Amino acid sequence: MLLMLNLRDFALIDSLTLDFYPGLNVLTGETGAGKSVIIGAIGLILGERASTEHIRAGSEQAFLEAVLSLADAPSQLKTIMEQHGIPVEEEIIISREISISGRNICRVNGRTVPLTTLKELGNYLIDLHGQHSHQSLLKTERHLFLLDEFGDLELIQTKQKLQKLYDRRQEVAEKLNYLGASADERLRQLELLRFQRDEIMSASVSAAEEQELSKRLSLLDNREKLLQVLNKAYNDIYGGESSSISCLDTINNIQAELSSFSDLDSQIAYFVDSLEQISVSLNELGHDLFGYLENLEVFPQEREEIESRLELYRRLKNKYGATVEELLSFASRCKQELEALEENENKALQLEKELQAIEEELHNVSEHLTSMRKNVAHLLEKEVQSIIEELGMEKGRFHVNISSQNSIQRSGKEKVEFLFSANPGEPLKSLAKIISAGEMSRVMLSLKCILAKQDNIQTLIFDEIDSGIGGRTIQKVSEKMASLGNNHQVICVTHSPHIASAAHHQFYIFKEFREERTVTFVEKISGEERLSEIARLLDGESTSTITRKHAQELLQKAKYMANNQEH
Predict the structure, then answer these.
(1) 239: left (phi > 0), else alpha (psi -120 to 50), else beta?
(2) 0.70 exceeded by the pTM?
């Protein structure tokens, strides 16, 4: 709610502090006195662009300041303030300095901010209707929200259910995305890991076996030469094919010759014993050599089997690691990844099943919400249509256009836009394309009256809403304005005595020529001053007995209507 407006060196205003109050605040005065100047100042506070023409002649800069209460401010406003590092307090103080040099400084609660931030905040502070463009109802993205708020509790609960389903769908989809892009890709990865693990594990590889196979193959490669050497060794040691005497025979002969002298000297006996031991060892060695030669046979397929087995080792190492240890480590990693992926696959299957169920329920809830929105749209159309006819636009048409989007969003599948046509034969147009300020204000007033409790923007400003209307219509407008003031702070610039008499607070704007300069002043009026001003609005004369009596009747009627509204 707007609490105070402070202007200095702005247009015709030298210095002005204006306090506003809850309910309907009306600004009246002679044409050109500066009523729209005050509304223009509020527009600048809300983020409209300024120019040096706004600066009072002879001054270097203009200063504008507004104090607004945040008691009933929407949560979005406080969120925006926090995002921009603006202190959130009980009140918000917005100021602008417009310098003749072109410098323009905007501050919010003492923090300097760009004009875009001021405009962003202004969207949640004040709705300004009339010749200005700062109007939240012109923003199509708000129409769906307002339509839903007009609906009953079932619609709100259905919308909340849809939002929860949508959020859960996003959550499940993100988990699925984390587990893998698709079921087919996860299956391919599982199959690859299983193949790699099984290929290594089924081979039963070991470093000891590889070493033994390599040695055996090397032995087979040198078998013929080894046989020659072994045969020669056997013959040389044990005797055989060679005609020469064997080593064993030589040792035995030496032993026999020395043994006849063993009694002569203990040392000779030692030699004889040693030769006997050598003979026994050579004899055993000869038998072992013979046995080894007997067993040194090669099956025809042995080399092929060994080479095939070693080729398996080489192939596996080329694919999975340079050593057998690396092969086994790779297989272990495959097993671990496979276990994790199989667990993820189970989770994915559960999530996919849940996602499918969510999609089906989301579709059903969305269809139900669409049906309810269409019913609510029909009711809203009827109510707005009734009010705009009361406000003098009997031929006007209001329509809630509901179009379907390609996919279900968090708000549903619908896109909603309020359309209006003022005259027969004219097509329905977006509210933003209504040219007449009077028509715009009355359409906005109609919507605000219906959506008053749902709309969380507390301050509404109507600039000359009475333009082009009169008679019973202006009386209806005044009643609607006063009724709207029960839920909102309404500020209205008017030339209508009916609207002025319905006000809870009235301000008189006038200008005087002082010290060779024209200056605009504002006074809050009541009692006789207010009666005289309403009489002036009636016919330009405030002294006529008849006019004053008429003015008194308007005030009494407004008071009576206000009392009835309260009860």
Answers:
(1) left
(2) no
